[in-house]
């Protein structure tokens, strides 16, 4: 509640005095951010409120795609051995100037080094600047092993030295945890003994600067007047925190906000029919799947897995579980991701053929467990219902299914076991838009007994994915990933079930909003038509 | 009287220790590990898991964790949220005024309507008025709060457009939170229309939160009044030729209020429970919503600290009610 500022009062006063020119975009967000330092957290809600409006990264995702484009780095070179990446930084970029901080210099290499070293080095003064700081994404993306050092060549050149060649590194640097902070601001906070403000009053180089936050109620931003990519068409950006989706919808209808995420799937048709609204949609960067345990009989036989896949009626699942907000999945990666293989044909739904195939393989009287997650996820809004539908489908081919479930933490842990009994319903939401983040993480040999719930280690597949990781260009990598998808389809370690379809209802006057396949919500370039 | 107060105060200590144990144990008894939940599908390596356990102090035996918690409590330290990394007490103090303001308006509404309605029902006992009032009270008492809140929003905010959908004040007003109470802050801000906006935002959540206490108070008032109206002194007052208003208002109601005050005191607990749902529906930034979010995230420090603070408030309110009760009804002191 203390986070009020004089400048903010002035701003409010100008808005109220009827400055007709002030354009305010209100976003009905779904929850409170955990804080404003994106590197400390992993939740999308937090990123929407911190890294997206306030910060930039060296490399950024091109709006609406998973392609990486220059951000605070204008260009970069990768050495022939793939171990050094040299970034050439953009010049003349200003940090936000607010009532709590006035920058004395432009963005430079020191800021880049500060932003990463605080996460990397345990003796860095900002490594544990709040109680329980744990840099989860930095760790999850293996940065501590991968980053040997970050060197300043000159004020506008930085070199990242890696311990091994890693093509997805560039995509990693476009992730939220890699947001660039002001070292000058951090130093000032350290001097005044208020380091934890780095997580409460953010200063970045992004399109919007932070004005005030009232927990669980409102976050206010104003357009950064000196933004390197041009000042935003709207003047103020307001997040009205509204956790209940039906209430968000009422607010949108009443004109209390302009745009909202995560509508209730059952309401989408009526929202589309409303004259004041429009609804954008896009496939989410996720996949929901059923992972067999490929190390156990009879699921070690690809033909058995294939037969079971043919027994699943995906259309029925899309209707009942996704209520239309889903799309059948044929590949382990979502269609918005580069290297997605359009040409692969999905297994047809054919219970009779499936039954015959099972009999051919000598599988009769099979009974198995299907694990249903206890939580709602974007890739599976109702796992229990999905498991019941699969149970029914499998019974038609003579397979008896018992549905089991555990508390979420327990579920994730137990499903990792190599000797686990049964097929597991689970899914994945991509982190950085790189196919490696799906194929290696979920299906690589290294991930067996971990995030590879199918316990599937296929040499051919693994070799392709590992090789792709070392190639420098996206085109070369995409070729190998396409081959890997063919192997995946042939071997069928999972039944790929669905990708969610994400809907974004907004008022008609909102223009320029681009849906982010990575699931974030950005307001750069968004305008309100008069 | 002083001895009575002292005795009641002394009783608070064992109760408080009990609550601290229950609040500490409750969240840990729920299956689910906050670190695993933070990691999600992404998973976490054994080493990293151990590191984080040590970072949060979860690697120590439960008894040690409890005594560390107790030691912190004695120094006024309720711990730090695992999620937001901010001190629990600071978060509580930021959010509590919103809950207090809403609860106060709700209980006021419940009293102002509940008592007269209860009196009326008692006086007109057996008539259609009595039956309507008690029937409505029964419906109110059994009302599923969540559904009721949404229904009111759809009707009054959606269809009729009379009240705002959610929040505490219109987004166009922006001023420093001085007291944390929006009604007061909006007046202090001096901005035209701010107070009006704050009041309009309070209407629906207050009605929703007041529904159950209102029903309880009306029913309790009615039955207490009926009992008192049959007493000899009421008959005496009537036979003396006092006006019905004087008999009911002065002689009967004053005595009937004794059990009603206890009931009102007990509604504080009901309000806190109701606030959880009401705040969630109306995006009201109070402690109810805060607690719910924390349970889902297994944020141990927030859940145990929040429970303790809420229990402490309920205990103190009950103490005040008991003392008040002792003042009104001297028999209780012995």
Give the helix/strand layout.
The complex is a heterodimer of chains A (about 525) and B (about 325).
Chain A: H1 6-16, E1 24-27, H2 44-49, H3 51-54, E2 59-61, E3 68-70, E4 73-78, E5 84-89, H4 109-120, H5 136-140, H6 143-146, E6 147-154, E7 157-162, H7 169-172, H8 183-191, E8 208-214, E9 218-223, E10 236-240, H9 245-253, H10 268-273, E11 277-283, E12 286-291, H11 302-311, H12 314-320, E13 326-328, H13 351-360, E14 367-371, H14 383-395, E15 400-404, H15 408-414, E16 423-429, H16 436-443, H17 459-468, H18 474-491, E17 494-507, E18 510-511, E19 527-528
Parallel strand pairs in A: 1-10, 14-15, 14-16
Antiparallel strand pairs in A: 2-3, 4-5, 5-7, 6-7, 8-9, 9-10, 11-17, 12-16, 12-17, 13-17, 18-19
Helix pairs in contact in A: 11-13, 16-17, 17-18
Chain B: H1 2-29, H2 34-39, H3 46-56, H4 62-74, H5 88-123, H6 128-141, H7 145-159, H8 182-189, H9 194-229, H10 232-239, H11 244-281, H12 287-296, H13 300-328
């Amino acid at each position: 509640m203390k986070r009020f500022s004089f400048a903010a009062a002035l701003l409010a006063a100008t808005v109220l005095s009827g400055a007709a020119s002030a354009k305010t975009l209100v976003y009905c967000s779904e929850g409170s951010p955990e804080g404003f330092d994106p590197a400390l957290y992993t939740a999308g809600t937090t990123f929407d409120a911190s890294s997206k409006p306030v910060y930039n990264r060296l490399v950024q995702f091109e709006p609406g795609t998973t392609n990486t484009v220059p951000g605070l780095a204008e260009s970069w070179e990768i050495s022939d051995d793939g171990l050094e990446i040299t970034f050439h930084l953009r010049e003349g970029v200003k940090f936000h100037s607010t009532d709590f901080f006035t920058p004395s210099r432009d963005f430079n290499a020191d800021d880049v080094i500060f932003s990463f070293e605080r996460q990397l080095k345990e003796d860095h003064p900002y490594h544990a600047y709040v109680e329980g700081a744990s840099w989860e994404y930095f760790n999850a993306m293996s940065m501590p092993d991968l980053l040997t050092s970050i060197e300043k060549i000159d004020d506008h050149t930085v070199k990242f030295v890696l311990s091994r060649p890693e093509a997805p590194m560039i995509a990693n640097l476009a992730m939220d945890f890699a947001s660039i902070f002001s070292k000058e601001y951090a130093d000032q906070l350290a001097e005044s003994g208020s380091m934890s403000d780095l997580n409460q009053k953010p200063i970045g180089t992004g399109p919007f600067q932070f004005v005030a936050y009232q927990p669980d109620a409102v976050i206010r931003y104003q357009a950064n007047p000196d933004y390197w990519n041009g000042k935003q068409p709207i003047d103020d950006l307001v997040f009205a925190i509204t956790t209940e989706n039906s209430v968000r919808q009422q607010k949108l209808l009443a004109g209390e906000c302009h745009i909202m995420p995560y509508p209730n799937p059952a309401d989408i048709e009526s929202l589309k029919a409303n004259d004041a609204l429009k609804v954008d949609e896009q496939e989410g960067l996720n996949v929901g799947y059923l992972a067999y345990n490929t190390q156990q009989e009879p699921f070690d036989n690809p033909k058995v897995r294939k037969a079971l896949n043919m027994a699943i009626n995906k259309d029925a699942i899309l209707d009942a579980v996704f209520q239309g907000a889903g799309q059948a999945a044929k590949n382990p990666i979502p269609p918005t991701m580069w290297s997605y293989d359009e040409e692969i044909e999905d297994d047809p739904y054919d219970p009779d053929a499936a039954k015959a195939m099972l009999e051919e393989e000598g599988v009769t009287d099979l009974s198995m467990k299907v694990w249903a997650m206890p939580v709602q996820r974007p890739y599976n809004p109702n796992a229990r219902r999905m498991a019941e539908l699969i149970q029914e489908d499998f019974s038609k081919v003579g397979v008896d299914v018992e549905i089991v479930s555990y508390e979420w933490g327990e579920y994730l842990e137990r499903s990792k076991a190599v000797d686990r009994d049964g097929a597991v319903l689970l899914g994945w939401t991509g982190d950085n838009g790189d196919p490696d983040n799906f194929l290696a993480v979920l299906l690589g040999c290294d991930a067996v007994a971990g995030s590879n719930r199918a316990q599937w280690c296929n040499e051919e597949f693994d070799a392709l994915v590992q090789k792709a990781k070392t190639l420098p260009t996206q085109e070369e990598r995409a070729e190998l990933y396409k081959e890997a998808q063919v192997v995946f389809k042939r071997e069928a370690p999972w039944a790929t079930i669905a990708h969610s379809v994400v809907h974004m209802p907004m008022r008609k006057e909102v223009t320029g909003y681009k849906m982010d396949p990575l699931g974030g919500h950005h307001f750069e370039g968004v305008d309100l038509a008069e | 009287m002083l001895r009575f107060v002292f005795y009641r105060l002394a009783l608070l200590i064992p109760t408080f220790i009990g609550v601290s144990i229950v609040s500490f144990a409750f969240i840990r008894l729920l299956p689910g590990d906050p670190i695993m939940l933070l990691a999600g599908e992404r998973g976490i390596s054994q080493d990293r898991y151990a590191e984080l356990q040590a970072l949060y102090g979860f690697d120590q035996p439960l008894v040690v964790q409890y005594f560390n918690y107790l030691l912190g409590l004695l120094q006024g330290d309720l711990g730090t949220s695992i999620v937001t990394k901010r001190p629990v007490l600071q978060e509580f103090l930021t959010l509590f005024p919103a809950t207090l303001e809403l609860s106060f308006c709700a209980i006021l509404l419940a009293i102002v309507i509940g008592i007269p309605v209860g009196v009326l029902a008692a006086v007109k006992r057996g008539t259609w008025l009595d039956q309507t009032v008690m029937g409505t009270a029964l419906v109110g008492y059994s009302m599923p709060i969540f559904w009721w809140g949404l229904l009111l929003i759809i009707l009054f905010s959606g269809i009729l457009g009379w009240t705002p959908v959610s929040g505490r004040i219109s987004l166009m007003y922006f001023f420093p939170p001085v007291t944390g109470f929006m009604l007061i802050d909006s007046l202090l801000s001096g901005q035209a229309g701010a107070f009006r906006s704050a009041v309009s935002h309070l209407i629906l959540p207050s009605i929703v939160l007041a529904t159950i206490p209102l029903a309880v108070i009306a029913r309790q008032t009615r039955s207490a009044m009926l009992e008192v109206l049959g007493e000899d002194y009421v008959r005496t007052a009537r036979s003396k030729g006092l006006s019905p208003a004087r008999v009911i208002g002065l002689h009967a109601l004053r005595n009937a209020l004794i059990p009603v005050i206890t009931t009102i005191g007990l509604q504080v607990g009901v309000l806190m429970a109701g606030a959880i749902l009401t705040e969630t529906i109306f995006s009201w930034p109070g402690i109810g919503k805060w607690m719910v979010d924390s349970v889902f995230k297994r944020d141990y420090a927030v859940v145990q600290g929040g429970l303790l603070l809420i229990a402490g408030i309920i205990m103190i309110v009950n103490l005040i009610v008991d003392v008040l009760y002792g003042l009104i009804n001297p028999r209780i002191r012995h």
